[in-house]
């Protein structure tokens, strides 16, 4: 496999891999239990760690961890291989088809992966990013009631922003469905298409993550109708987190520890050298997409984001409830989705407070 896996994964592989998860001879790791026997991470045989991430600023810890070599440095004897994706469901398909071992991803695709595999396939091992999403609309739309009959875009059906929009609209008495019907027509599409269509007037708004949240405002004159952070206690909600295939976590806990340490290095770099961190993240985006972000957009997007190893578990639970309420999730059971033993080891070793799951 090349270092840049393009997401042409056949979705049939998802069902096959889910079935295979149930036949794994090793039991799944219990929530909060150490995969490495008491919170340590004994060295295992050298392996290739296949890590996924997105060319979005919401994945800045991953972008910087790759570009600065933090992951590879902390992995030691293990070798890093990377793959990039455009949305969570694509990354989940790759993980289920055993094309990657771990990925940075949003909360709702994580929930779907966990539930589709009967709680066996994945574990959330660390947080990454909070905030940086919301609804940008045409300037003439000033109230939620005016969204009725309008066309609003999201990155992909069932992704984190798609669920957030549907749940918000339902809370305001506006109905939607997965085929684009209802009071508000929701159009799941690539963020790049959203930028073009919003500028052309073909859509009335979009619920998107950074940097598209800022780009719709600065490049196309959009207006923020809903900043998602206003909907959460303390303005904190999980936007991006790190998930790992359970079987990989069991087989190579030291490699997973290395990934988390590399992420911690990247987050420290962002806090210590914010201007340089923005440039490094942008360089990685340019390397992947060929299109770096403008400095003004980059700076504005970073101010809307908080980078943290805390997975903000309470917000994940609420996201699950929201997905269930709008018909995109069968139930809200998340018991066992977290294994935070390794991230808590990293936090404890650096003198920081440990984090909790559900």
The arrangement of helices and strands along the chain is HEHHEHEHEEEHEHEHEEHHHHEHH
- Estimate the strand proportion: 15-25%
Summarize the main sheet: 6 strands, mixed
User: What would the average pLDDT be, to the nearest integer?
Assistant: 89
Ends distance: 36 Å
What is the overall shape?
globular
Binned, the helix content reads 40-55%
- Unreliable stretches (pLDDT < 50, length at least 5) are 1-39
Helical run tally: 14
- Whole-angstrom Rg: 19 Å
Quickly give the structural class. Answer: alpha/beta
Q: Trace the largest sheet across and list its strands.
A: 2-1-3-10-4-11
Q: How many β-strands, per DSSP? A: 11
Q: Which tags fit this structure?
A:
358 residues; alpha/beta; five-stranded mixed sheet; disordered N terminus
What does this structure look like?
Helices cover 41% and strands 17% of the residues. It has 358 residues and is α/β, with parallel strands linked by helices. The strands form 2 sheets. The chain has a 6-stranded mixed sheet with strand order 2-1-3-10-4-11, with helices on both faces. α6 (160-171) crosses α13 (313-325), α7 runs parallel beside α8 (212-220) and α10 crosses α11. The chain has helices at 12-21, 60-67, 70-75, 88-96, 107-116, 160-171, 191-200, 212-220, 246-251, 253-272, 274-289, 295-303, 313-325, 341-349; strands spanning 48-53, 79-84, 102-105, 122-131, 133-137, 151-154, 185-188, 205-209, 223-227, 238-245, 305-307. The protein has 14 helices and 11 strands.
